[in-house]
Amino acid sequence: MSDKIVITTESDQYFDRLTDLLRLEEVEEKREYEEQFLRKSPDQREKAGKSLLKLVVSDIHFSGGGHQLVSFGYENGRPLPIYSFDVGDVVSLSRELKALENLPVGTVYDRTSSEITLAFNRRLPDWINDESLFYLNEASPRESFQKMFDSIKRVKEAQHDRLAYFRNLSFGEKKPMTGDPIPIDRIRFNNPGLNQWQKIAVQKALEALDIAVIHGPPGTGKTTVLVEIIRQAVSAEQLIFVTAPSNTACDHLLNCLVRSGIKAVRLGHPARIMDHLKVHTLDFKLANHVYSKVADDLLGELKRLFRQKARKKERRPLTTEEKIELDEKIRSTRNEIDALEENVWSQVVDGAQVWVGTHTSGNDRVFENKTFDLLVIDEATQGVEPSTWIPMAKAKKVILAGDHKQLPPTVMCEDAKRKGLDVTLFERFKKILGPDHQMMLKLQYRMHEKIMSFSSKKFYGGELVADESVRLHTLADLSGVKRTPEIEQPFVFLDTVGRGFEEKLEPGSGSKFNIEEAAFVVGELNRLIDAGVKAEDIAVISPYSAQVRLLESQIQISGVEIASIDSFQGREKEAVIISLVRSNTEGKMGFLTDVRRMNVALTRARRKLFVVGDSGTLATIPFYKAFIEYAEAVGGYKSSWEEV
After folding, report:
1. Whole-structure pTM value
2. Closest to 372 (Cα-Cα) out of 166, 546, 186, 561
3. Residue 44 banded pLDDT, cuts 50, 70, 90
4. Which of 62-71, 368-377, 400-409, 529-538 has the lowest mean pLDDT?
5. If both were cysteines, with which of 88, 261, 360, 642 could 272 make a disulfide (CB 3.0 to 4.6 Å apart)?
């Protein structure tokens, strides 16, 4: 009998390679985790804020959604030491310091000076009820990687189903399909304010039977289009899952959906969700169901039974008969809790039409027996491909929305990045799909045309158009702001060339900062404030965290937002000041060589963009040379020598 012949397809080879790249990234994250955490002693970890040691359980209660909330503190109630776990962070729980793998993992739900509360998805081991001392540690990133590895395996091995169809589409082995043409004047738009490009995007999404891509450059109203598409699907009584890579992006989508009148249910830990949106979470709806109070009472009874079984504060140990009787009561009470939770679960879950959650929510037990008529993936250029496939396993039709000309997904391993782990599924589909299945939005509602034009030319083929409402707006048009030539100027590049303002390396972090450049940033900020611009309308951003820290120490004006460029993606302010930092005789630019970061920076301002940098260093890269030439062409170039 001959051996079975295995034919390896192009997609098999691709997904094997993708697995290898993801493994490289996992190894890099694990290496960093071990370097910063596991190699330190428990006391060192606690001093660094990465562990909390020798805690006791102060409370356990049921929160709905299958979550148990467990509170920890010191036995005498004294304050906890300073620690870095914030609400929404993932930490592991153990009874001993040695075991740091395969531990229960919880999400920080709440924190006070003397207590930290974790939310757990899964039933906790019985030892949580022992009168033990517990340890909380920064969790390993392993769990999220396993979901992505499972996702790659699932899509690679899929056969004769919708996931296999999407996989084959992504390799051009299948052609995407459209239904009958739908004339725009026949579509009943819920939002009458959509522009022509937005309407065409909605039209193409409705006509597509399987997939459509919406490219939304800065300020073009991508979310507005997605809300309209979702509202159309709701009217057609479709089941919809709306997803994005981050909780912040999910909250933004949920907020827009709620404002438009859509009743959506948010998946995920309430700890990671904005306070005003928590009433829309699955947890909230489950916890406020009438049966949930009964389940909570039963959980209290279960705790009492465990304490009775432990009986550490009584002299006489339990007899065998008493232990058997208690075990039976514990089992019976647990069964009652499970039955009640299942009843609540089915009533709440079966009544929902629109779900919102991160990509990994696609594995949630909510979706065990569900297939979505429509999957909407926003910020699809922010998630690595393996994570994007997770929700696609449950979809009949997919809308991918994003902007591949802004920052790609975060990949820590340089080798994996160089070999393409940061290339997204959005980009792959955009290259393959024809014009009937994709649309770029072109009318932007954010930037003065002089702020917009450089990025439009360099990243969007010169196709962006400024709406008349923003085309010529300046800070001087804002209430209470003085009208001066400097305030009316929408775009300035302040050149520090020749001043000797060399960058410095921050000890420990390896990040860069520039003290003299920061002084010019503070000077411009003060001029804007003196002219009447409100502090909350101004952002100061920089590519380097060390420069952000330096600026935070120097700027004492309450309300001014100071942030890294990466963290400011998706945001906007009336005025934005950018500190580029790099100034050296070798022309080294570091990660500023990825010009997509600069595209993000340049497109955050509505009325005033003020950039500080050294043209001597910047101009070693053609993109920055062109940027400086653009500043000169539109009258926005200014030498720092004029400031002396």
Report:
1. 0.84
2. 166
3. confident
4. 62-71
5. 88
